Description:
Layout (H helix, E strand, L loop, with lengths): L3 H25 L5 H13 L1 H20 L7 H14 L2
Bound molecules: zinc ion.
Amino acid sequence: MNDPEMYSQEHDEMDECVQALSRVHAFLRNELVERDADIIRLHLHACERCMENFEIESTITEMIQRSQPEPSAPATLAARVRAMRISSRH
Length: 90
Ligand SMILES: [Zn+2]
């Protein structure tokens, strides 16, 4: 019934999601150090909801960057994320 531990755990998970999503934009722009990027990647692996949000954000970011003439295309990052998703299916 009223289980305070369950509530606090749920809250922790929410907190992880908030932290992951707050860094998604920096992650997409390759602005995070490798260690922080790993934390995001691990969370996306574990959390379907954030993976969905991440895919939406990455699609939007790619669209914006494609529409800009700047040559800073995050092709390697996109490839890395795609490789990560493929390897997670095994
Ligand atoms: Zn999450």
